[in-house]
Specification:
8 strands, eight-stranded antiparallel beta sheet, 169 residues
Length: 169
């Protein structure tokens, strides 16, 4: 099964939600969650998240323990009416390189610019780019989902529906 086989309303959440809460496991085993901007890479059965080199704890956590989850629970700004709450569980990988360009990163910035138009203001001036250069130096986190659970209309009191994806070693 692939992500493309998910119900349309679940795919809409993965495409349209402005952020998700990504949970990683810290060095002491404690879960840590951060709001992040997800980019659905449907053709690869992955989701892309990025983090600045200034906030690299989540990347360090993924390198140590690749199991992650992503909760899509807040539809604010998505334009979706009564969407399901969606929980993606999978494994993540982080490259060794700090990225400043590339197709995936450019797609990420286009998405951020569309969803957070005010963010373009920082990149519009040379001083803004100079003072914020560390923010544009990114680590790319690719999440390969293993299972997707969803609760229709966000009704989390009910049992979730489930879609498992093949594990690729």
């Amino acid at each position: 099964m692939t992500l493309a086989e998910l119900p349309a309303e679940v795919l809409a959440v993965l495409r349209e939600f402005r952020c998700c809460e990504m949970a990683t496991v810290g060095p002491d085993g404690t879960p840590a969650a951060w709001p992040m901007v997800p980019l659905l890479l449907l053709d690869r059965d992955q989701l892309l998240l990025t983090t600045s080199i200034g906030f690299a704890a989540k990347a360090a956590n993924v390198r140590r323990e690749p199991r992650v989850s992503m909760l899509f629970s807040d539809p604010t700004g998505s334009g979706l009416s009564d969407p399901p709450a969606v929980l993606v569980s999978g494994t993540a990988s982080v490259g060794e390189r700090v990225e400043t360009a590339g197709d995936d990163l450019e797609a990420h910035w286009r998405l951020v610019g569309a969803r957070q138009p005010v963010s373009r203001w920082f990149a519009a001036s040379a001083p803004g780019r100079w003072f914020m250069d560390w923010y544009y130096m990114r680590l790319l986190i690719y999440v390969t989902p293993r299972s997707v659970l969803w609760w229709p209309a966000g009704e989390t009191a009910a049992a979730p529906r489930r879609h498992d994806l093949p594990h690729v070693a």
